[in-house]
Structures
1.
Amino acid sequence: MTHNVDERPALVAKGSGATRFIGTLITVAIAIIVVGGSAWLIHLNEPQPATKVAQAAGTMKTPQGDLPHYTLDLSVYPNANTADCAGGPTLGETIPGPVSGIGQVFAQKCPPFWWDSTSLELPAHSAITITVHQYDGSTPVNSDYFADVHGTIDGKASYNGEAKTGIKPADVAHTFTIHQYPQAGQPYFFVSVPMRAVPSNAKPESGSNYPKAEVIEFTFITGDPGSYIWNCEDPCGNAYQGFGGVMMQRGWMAGTVEVV
Amino acid sequence: MSAAVESPRSATTGEAVKTVARRNRLGIWLCIISDATGTVALLISYTYLWSLNVNNQWAPPKNAWADWWPFWAIVAGIVIATALIWWGIAGIAKGHKGRLAGAAVLASLILIATFVGQIVQLSTFPFGPADGAYASATFWLCLATAFHLAMLGLLVLAVSIRTGKGLISPDNHSHARFVAMYMTWVCISAALGALVATTMLASPNTQMPLFGTFTG
Amino acid sequence: MSVMTTDIHEQTAVPQPKQHGKPGGFLRHTNIFTGVVTGLVLAIITFAIGSKIVPWGNQNVDFDQVGFQALIGITYIAWVIGFMAGIGAFAGPIRWVLGHDLTHADAEYMAGKGQGRFKYWKYTTDHKVVGIQYLIMTLVLFGLGGFLAMLIRTELGITWAEVFTPNFYNSIIGTHGIVMIIAMIIVVAGPLGNFIMPIMIGARDMAFPRLNALSFWLLFAAVPPLVSNLLLGGIRDGWTVYEPLGSQSPVGMIGYQICIIVFAFSTGIASVNLITTAFTMRARGMSWNRVPIFVIGIISAAIMGLVWFPMFQYSQILALSDRMLATSFFNPLMGGSVWLYENLFWLLGHPEVYVVVIPGTAALIELMTVFLRKPLFSYKMAIAGFAGITGISAIVWVHHMYMTGWAPSAGYPFMLSTELISIPFGFLVLVMLGTMWRGKPWTRLPMMCVYAVIWNKIIGVITGVYLSDVPVDQYMHGSMFVVAHFHYMLMGAGLFAAIGAISYWFPKMTGRMLNERIASIGFWVAFFAFQLTFMSMFVAGLQGMPRRVLQFDNAFNISNWLSTIGAYCIGIGMVIFLFAIITSWRNGKPAPANPWGAKTLEWQTSTPVPLENFPVLPVVTSDPYGYGVPDPYDAVEKKMSEADQPVGAGAR
Amino acid sequence: MSLTNAPETEQPEEPTNRPAPSYRIREWLSRPYARHFLVLFIIFTVVIMPSAWLVLHFMNQSGAPASAIMSEIEKTIFVFTFVSAPLMAMALAILLYSLLGRDWGGKVHGEEPPMQESPAIRTNGTAVILWITATSLLAGFLVIWGMMELATITANSYGSTAPNQQPKDVKPIDINVTGAQWVWNFQYPDQRGIQSDTLVVPVDTPLYFNVTSVDVIHSFWVVELGIKIDANPGAVTNTGVTPNKLGTFNIRCAELCGMHHAYMQTKIQVVSQAEFENWVRVMGGEKTS
């Protein structure tokens, strides 16, 4: 019977209680270091766009009386093709791709759409005027609600100088929508302004990769300090309903708003 | 034990082949059960989407439904092959091996033809897989059948080879039986698929609200 | 109780088929390294060729385009096929088709004869080797899942800032969930079901040794795609990847789907193997009323897994085809339905919970008789309990969908079925309590696990009763309360039971005694920290905190801080336990054949277990629960029933 | 004389002429282990019962119930906790008794299996029957209670009936809720179809919600009102409630819906009828420019 051949070496006990105890402590220490270290590395590895602070511009007469006035300039660029990446405008190698941070294997060097920053800082209890230069074409919105202007002073925004309460859903390129942060204490805050698209047949201006920009300007009033987020509500990404990729990415079509 | 000595023994484990055969039959039954759940999952998907007609997108564009006869032609192919194998098994049980070998070769030819037919049907649908829920569900019913056919081709080929080598012999032909059992199940599965795909066409539900709205 | 007879089979008597080459044939040249190399090479070639022919456009512009999805998916499939080919999984079927049947020498080589430790790296069919491989795999998966859990609690504990971006946070909750689910499914049925169960029923090996190896190596091939999702954008949708949100995720999602599809094959094969073994390979004399209860538990878990896993598998196959072929099963714009996904998912999803809990419970019932020196209380009730759970588990899945608005009136019947399943579950509780009734425990670590698990299970079941009730679920659904509840069931009742079972059979599996001093420290730290963590998570849920959020109201801060502290302590405890396992495995005290004085068959053979388990096959003459002495009170009662009968009559 | 001898256990199983049940119960109660167990059982029950109030306390931290539905839910949770307390107490009593039962002198601690063996109780018909009846009765009670509650809530929330034929005579306000990633949007079809990002509703008026989504699955959850329903793309789901308390409450998304799921939050203001009409006028005025 060749069945019960024991193929293992003879077993002997090794190690004392003390060594085991020390070994336990060392193992725990190693585990803590591994977890904490990797958490910290991942945290560092997830770039956030540089914060953009609103500039003071005197005071402004508003329905709520005279308030300190601040301005903020933003730009939205259309699809960047490889040529742009090579030597185009200051498009962001620093900007995370649709797969950011630890998952950067397929991160894009060039953003399809681009705001010069998405981390905004606004002063509290003041009138904020945001001016957006919009170079991008249109994608119809999923919900017409976001083709209207909400939350600005008298509910209007100016498109190339003419004040409107909204634009045609088919003309929307992106929207700038600030909304709530899950903090019951802080004041509710909702601003949504659609960005009108440049005409689909627009030619690039000379010396630039982009056609003439649509200039959207709107003013709203901030309340008490608090943390908010904003994102684009226009399905300008990819995958199902256009909300994949860049739409799900801070630094691209979403960001944070700090009212300080 | 004495009884076990006369009956042939398995070369690998030395147990009586009867014991091994009983064991394997249970295994095959369990595999069939598991496979059946998969088929049921596909049928659920088909009938569920058919009954909901979400966003009025069940029907393919221009109501171009698939022809009914290719489904049943494929089912017929599998049924004939299965019948052949059973016939061969009945033969080998009586002792002549040639019948099973011949039947298996013939059946494998039929199965290959059926497989080709399945591929042709898949590639000649009047719609693409992206044209609505009916298209998707039908494509997957056919893909499942194609997968089954490929596997059956292999199994039947094995039966013919092993019979030729005398490994499937009158007193040890359980493997052929297992293959036949599985083929019988595949017949049922393919027939069920063909049944829904050819009878449940236009969706009964026309009241679904349009996507993102509150009215039909 | 069993006696050894001299029923041996004479291998040499059997006429052998022609021996093709050396014993083992092709498998002599394959091992895990050839498998990994072949898999990677094939995957890389596929990606290189595919990226030439598949039109997936300019990645910079359109990242999630269908063609690119298909390319990634095909690459993953190539990895799986290449790995299985490289490790020699296809050798068996091909030999069968060509009629080159295995000789006894082949079988013995494939069972790892004379290969020393190297057999653990090969396509080895011996059930003991597969059991050890499963054990290692389980430990690795628990390490990964626990690591992700620590990251999650870190994010939730640091309430004043975002440690991770929302996308990465969503990815780690999803990956943590599915990794832990897979680990919990295999933790008992894999190592112990493969290693212990065949010995327990007196068999020489599993029914289908090659399928046994196949099931493990399929699992091995399925894990890398899952883990790689973190590098490809992650699965940002929780472990129940509800469509269509799943279709918005980057290509990392494909890794998840491939993993589930392959893992479902692995589970189905393993279930077929376990059921067939338990039904057809029991030792002579082991009739159904003498089978150890652990075997019954494994059978019922295997049945549920076998019957229901294809539903989950197809939910992922169809979701994958939505990505790769742009079909529209789950895309409501094109006629798909989100409820279809939820139904297919939960048709497995709920039985899966019992697949996790049942084997551990059965193992505890098995071992508590040993440590209480007491027969199993009401064996028939235990069997009825397992059977009832196996049956009813098929018709309760909708209680995960009360709030989806799918057929609101379905709440009534499924509330009924969900409450009904608590009755067979109660049978098992009765068996455990009855066995414990008036028993004096031998307080070794496995027995302590029994107490811990019963405590956790009580809380899990009671909170489960809340959630099974539609009105209450209307408040609790999707809140942290649910998270705490299923952690009490899966971790508190499942994982701690697995710890008990593994530490009970550790001597038989490794040939060494577990260092119980260190292991107990780890165990108790983990247990009490577990209470802190999930009790405070219950509180957060009751306060109205939704699950899967990374920022939340200040009102929930305190409970989350406590929960995070507890989670860290769980981690520390588990690490200590792991350390005890590893050191004891390397150089623990050599174990005697039967350290616990147990009566089941696996303890009757020598340690370490020889190649074919038993030099001679045992014959069973009674069930393995013959512990204990006659109850003295029975004597008193009998005496009373004769002597004091008049008194009893006069009392009326 | 030979009262306590082993041979009695070998006597034929079926005991002739059993004594009266009452007597057997008294005899059982006279056994020490039975008494100890009962004491532990009662202690644990008394200790566990109050947890019912604890649960309610935590639930009310998010705000007291603001609708009949939420009150019903809290009542259900309270009752369930109360009912399950004895069960938990019994299990814990048995656990603790068996832990205390071991002799702490300690050969049971040792490496070797203990010599002393426990009573070989294979089964006990009385215990089994009692247990099955008890658990079945408990489960039956839970099912019946749950179904009655569900019926009440369905009636309160109009979930099953269309707005035009609803039980109460007050005309309910129809509200179309649309979930988009990651913002809620509310439309009042009866109030000239005005739209808003927050929900403003009058008190003591039945509300009827039609809920849908334009992209992925969301879940419409008003914590204090105790209503929750998924917003499914391609389908319309219904729920309803009658708020009976003024105040401002949270609307949260309870189904993971992508990156900003945690931030998909807005508020519902329950105001007086007059304020509501005023608000409608203001919103409508903006709309008609």
2.
Amino acid sequence: MFWKLRLPLALTFFVGLVPIVTFFLTERVFGVSFVRDRVEQYMVIIAGFALLLGVVNVVQGNVRKIERRRPGWPFAISLLTGLFVMGTFGLLSAFRVGPFQGILSAPDGSDTPFYWMTRSLFNPLQAAMFSLLAFYIASAAFRAFRVRNIEASILMVAAFVVMLGRTPLGEYVFGWIPGGHRWLPTFTEWIMAVPNTAAQRGIIIGAALGAAALSLRVILGIERSHLGVKGKS
Amino acid sequence: MTPDTWYDPSRVGAPLVLLLVFSALVLFFIQRSRQGHALFIRRIAGITAMEEAVGRATELGRKVLYLPGGGTLDDIQTIASLAVMRHVASLTAQYSVELDVPNKDPLTFAAARETVQEAYIQAGRPDLFNNETVHYVTYDQFAYTASITGLMVRDKPATNFLIGAFHAESLLLAETGQTVGAMQIAGTAEVTQLPFFAVVCDYTLMGEELFAAGAYLSKEPAMLGSIKGQDITKAGLIAFLILGILLEIFGIHWFRDFMTIS
Amino acid sequence: MAEAVGTWLGAFLTLCIFSFLYRDNPFFRFAESLFAGISLGYYIGIVSNNTLGPNLFQPLFTDFSGRAHLLIPMLLGLNLYTRYLPKIAWLSRISLAVYIAYYVGINMVQKLQGEVVPQVGQTIMNPIGGTYTPIDNLIIIVGVLAVLVYFYFSIEHKGVMGPVSRLGIWFLMLGFGAAFGYTVMGRVSLLIGRMNYLFLETVNATVAVF
Amino acid sequence: MQLERLANIDRRVVYLLIAIGTTLPILLPIGFAVSTTPPVENLYHKIEGCGTDDVVMISFDYGPTTAPECTPMAEAVMRHCFSRGVKVIVLALFPIGGVTMAGETVENISAEYPHLRYGEDYVFLGYKDGAQATMKQMGVAFSGVFPRDQMGTALEELPLMQRVRNYENVSLIVSIATNVIGEWWANLVNAQFGTPVAVGCTAVSAPKYYAFLDTGQMLGLLGGLKGASEYERLILDGYPELRRIYNRTGVYNAMKGMDAQTVDHAIIMIFILFGNIVYFLIRRRDRRLGTA
């Protein structure tokens, strides 16, 4: 029990101090270049191994779904098929097995099956999902922008003015006054550059301090939820 | 290019001073708080609403969905999310509500599993935790989003927690959650996504509130002390800012120069 | 030909995703589950090709003794799987602890050095001068201070704190509204791209075949 | 009860209108008048000042994800150069799909100008990894980074490249950029070598780029679809023969995109106004019922 708790916390403390201390030092100090060059690379490798952890969980969950004929089980088959086909091409290409001598393009510049699947299936799915935002941003604006109170009104008016100012419509509003066609676009740019900057700066400074305080709590072992260990003072 | 000193002169100025002052203040207030000095922390609506949100799931007999965000475990927002997750998991264990934590980042998935399982054990309900409570989906931002929106529409969770680092998917998730009638508590420090959460969700923990949430929920003196230390640093920075601006007006650039990284 | 088939497949899947706007349906579920599977397969390939291959296996295979230090991350990575062995399940926490601790340390200095210092530094300005008018500069200064006051946790927002933190919220709302309105254009551009794909590119790809 | 129904219109009505509002303008151009702004005009006038001896470099620093905004800019600038007989050197520095974008654009636009000859009037260098290093090396010699062009021909065999050695022989660099690469052209190439730089970027990154315009590191700036449509407007006014290209149906351009943007923005704003009017009516009714 001692080791189960103490070892992770002790490691957290010492490993956490490493980047903080080396941050202020130059590579003339022993060990600094090791940390800068290698530790980051180590972390990427650990993260790489973790992906398989996720894959195992996905396969387990979906196989169980098919076995128990849970609702929607046929879709688990299409999921596993996609995973298997794409994953196999990916692994074969990554480790240059047989005719698979490259992941996104073969040595002669031609497309690989992995790339074909990426371009024909993966990329359109990504782009389609991403573009749904155009619909959602419209329905969210309609539903949420109501002048309920001062805060909601400020929110709405700011959004409305900026939307107007960013299109030719913004030029038409005061376009009948000589020189007026630039008023709204200019005002829009002002909102973005002045009050918006102030709000963003305030959030960033506050959030950065909060993040630093949380970091300190983790390094000191006060915050340890991520290890599944209950905190105590 | 390498400077001939053992320390990096561009970094030991303001950043080092800030780091030392900040750490000292936080440590001081942690110590003070542990000695029993009571601390006031104001109410944060999104945090107070969490219990009600889980209670709602009990009434409706539906699950609680907890999304730890699209960030990886190297993002501090994800660590903040795990701290909140721990609390939410204790609540769902106490109320015997089903909890569902789908993950995008595999390491976050590993950590979340530890967090939730331990919370269930501590709450005396290890029987409620199973292999599907915390599960993995996929590493791709929009594939993950597609799966989660589908899940929301089919399972109709009573409450959605969207807490952590979110990017363009924020609005897709929050808007879908809204259509299925879920109560939504969001929290992120991504400045670009805060507007969408603020517009769509019932409660939003903004920036610093997200990082304070875990400490606030734990109610432990050491945690609360660290918030106090952070606040005092902030007060110091505000004073520093005002003084700096006054000096600027008189043409004295000390403060500005000190904060300008060469 | 493969090009045209690819374009048509892509267009079909795009429509499957768009059908979700009407309601959940088997086409969307198919696209969604295929998407989850393919994307995971994609990252298996990419992570092996870009990380595990060149940074771990190839160096180890070509020069084992010289790169034996790479066994450290490899063991830490494999150690994640002890989770499946109940007796030593706790060991996996060591890998998590090391990973988290390293990035938490990095985050701490980066946030202070990269965000707090420059953002405060930029706000320390003489209101008269610079690219903006004095009034603009004052608005920025007041806005930053008010938002910081809003985030002050350990004092009740009463007295002077009350109105100032209220002003902070107003600034936040103004910023959020503006950012929301500003983003609409980018999102619509994405949709325009998809509509082009559906209406123009599929046609062009088909024409190219014949 | 009627009012509540209006306040909670099915969101699918909004979706449908957005879908129509995006598709129709692409298929049937409307042509909202856009006024042009100085950052765009500057670039136009710079190219207007170029003759057949001048060389303009167009760098494709974006990928397929931002193509709806960026491709029309690249096309318009390239058409402008070709119409004036200005020589063009094309390259790509964006890793994910930049070279594909460049290849497609060169192919499409050069087909519109059949009298122009590859190697004499325009050259496509291809893609190189590591944008900053590439930019620096090109200051010495293009052939140092691109010994051969995209088709594998050695640069010394291309007539145009025989007289164009490095930035000194280039009158203008136009970077169509989706991220930081556009900035590098300004603060690296313009700052070190003095070659004028103009950038076309997505609407999202435009505000950040205005700072470079203020300092003169960028000569012109096209921001998002709006900037692209302004440029199209300028070349159409200057070169009426381009109308036959821009009025074709079935081909996308920024003016059509801007029409779609305008219609969609209008739809959203009308819905917001409508929602608030209904909200007011409900409140007024409830207040009246409450006092009655």
